[in-house]
Design goal:
By secondary structure, the protein is of the alpha/beta class. 42% of the residues lie in helices and 11% in strands. It has two domains: 341 residues, Rossmann fold (3-Layer(aba) Sandwich); 70 residues, Winged helix-like DNA-binding domain superfamily/Winged helix DNA-binding domain (Arc Repressor Mutant, subunit A). The chain contains 17 helices and 14 strands.
């Protein structure tokens, strides 16, 4: 790749906060998932069955992005822009890959199981309103591709706002031939939809008669879309639609119906946890020369590769795919997490294809598959993290006040069960779950220091000095 990376702080080894929760690591043990995922998957376990022992609580930490995901050109771009923005690198990476794949359209594809798999990746960036930096990541990638658009003979259409299946079909519907009156497919059937209020989309899914959910599922598969309920029926022949969504964890959990979880409406999305990576009160803008250099390279790749058809695996990729395929195919316990991970194999294929194409490669190699598997591992960890969030702020504040009243002495596990929860098992379970998330977020510490009498016990204390951002913008 050209020298734009070398001209940034990233080239000199500057690092950013990629999601490893040092606060949780210092107060909670590293735990393992029952499915034993591969390295980089954010190894987690369910809450311990016993609450009456003195073991520390396992903490569901924020996902950690495996460096293997920052492979090749995509990784170099993320490393180059990361020091200039507060956006999380995983969000930048996912939006970059999705947008580049949308520009290329349906031409370049892998063929697996007699079905084409184009570079159509649909990220769902998930982060809290206060510090998720979802829009920040989107703005960075949008700025780069606006520069790509300037010199393009065939720019990608980008729209915002989804309300109905019919409205989406209309955007890519076949056009009427002025001479014959016949409907013919559009010459350019690419469309990028950026939905920064994806919670509203989930609400539309639940409305009686709304066909948006069904239409999106078909669009992800690249099928011909039809609207037959209107007085003027429409057809969109095999459009190439890419969707990028932004949502808060609470919205996603509360508005995902069982039908969407288990019926495939949400598991076509690449769920990516996002949060602010650094504070840049006097910066946050990409240098113009950096934008131009990245855009020129991406535009060149798009011009050269958009006319590709089937993209092969190299021999090394075929060998690497076997253990990845077996790993992705392993059985999982029934439940929402398993349902959200059900499309892991086609997702990894699509991601690997985009990694290859953004590298300028006309074949998928082993390194592209490993990078795709690393990004998918981050998505797996994001889903586990999603189910470990806190919702009821009033209960959280009540628990924090109760801990604060204990001062330096803190509260023991038995205190939580007997005093706070008043020996109510359900209330105790909820309190321990809240404590685990508060430990993860650095508001509470769990101390296992021995008092010299018997085995050490676990005590929970309010953190005296919440973790702050350093002068260089990194968390300390």
């Amino acid at each position: 790749m050209s020298g734009f990376l070398d001209n940034t702080a990233a080239a000199s080894g500057q690092q950013w906060h990629t999601g490893r929760d040092e606060r949780a690591a210092s107060t909670g043990e590293r735990v393992e998932h029952v499915d034993d995922p591969p390295e980089g998957a954010g190894r987690l376990v369910p809450f311990p069955a016993r609450r009456d022992d003195d073991a520390p609580l396992p903490v569901v930490g924020f996902p950690e992005l495996n460096p293997a995901a920052l492979q090749g050109t995509a990784g170099e771009i993320v490393r180059a822009v990361a020091p200039t923005t507060e956006a999380h690198p995983a969000a930048l990476l996912a939006i970059l890959l999705a947008t580049f794949g949308a520009w290329l359209g349906p031409g370049p594809h892998l063929l697996r199981g007699n079905a084409p798999h184009p570079g159509r990746v649909w990220p769902l960036i998930t982060g809290r309103s206060s510090d998720g930096a979802k829009g920040t990541a989107q703005a960075v990638i949008d700025r780069i591709f606006r520069e790509v658009t300037v010199g393009s003979d065939c720019p990608l259409r980008q729209v915002r706002g989804l309300s109905s299946g019919e409205g989406l079909i209309e955007l890519v519907a076949d056009e009427k031939d002025e001479d014959t009156g016949e409907l013919i497919p559009r010459t350019d059937r690419r469309l990028l939809v950026v939905e920064e209020e994806y919670g509203q989309v989930l609400i539309q899914f639940q409305r009686s008669g709304n066909t948006l959910s069904t239409t999106l599922r078909q669009a992800w598969d690249g099928k011909t879309l039809q609207s037959v309920t209107r007085s003027n029926p429409m057809t969109a022949t095999e459009p190439s639609i890419t969707l990028i969504g932004h949502v808060t964890p609470r919205e996603l959990r509360e508005r995902m119906t069982s039908a969407e979880v288990f019926g495939g409406g949400v598991n076509r999305m690449l769920i990516i946890a996002s949060r602010r990576a650094r504070l840049l009160p006097e910066g946050g803008n990409l240098p113009h020369d950096l934008v131009g250099e990245i855009a020129d390279q991406l535009a060149d790749r798009i011009r050269k590769l958009s006319r590709l058809a089937e993209v092969p695996f190299t021999p090394a990729a075929r060998e690497a795919w076997v253990p990845i395929y077996e790993d992705l195919s392993r059985p999982r316990p029934d439940g929402p997490v398993a349902a959200l991970l059900a499309r892991s194999r086609p997702m990894v294929l699509r991601i690997a294809l985009v990694y290859a194409l953004i590298d300028g490669s006309t074949a998928v190699d082993a390194e592209h598959l490993h990078a795709a598997r690393a990004l998918w591992a981050y998505a797996e960890a994001s889903i586990h993290w999603l189910y470990g969030q806190l919702d009821d702020q009033e209960q959280v504040e009540a628990l924090l006040e109760w801990l604060a009243a204990a001062g330096e002495a803190g509260r023991s596990k038995s205190d939580v069960t007997n005093l706070y929860a008043k020996k109510n098992k359900k209330a105790a379970d909820h309190a321990f779950n809240m404590l685990a998330a508060l430990i993860r977020d650095g508001l509470v510490v769990q101390d296992t220091t021995s008092t010299g009498r018997g085995r050490p016990g676990t005590r929970f204390k309010l953190r005296a000095h919440p973790q702050a951002y350093g002068k260089n913008g990194e968390t300390e």
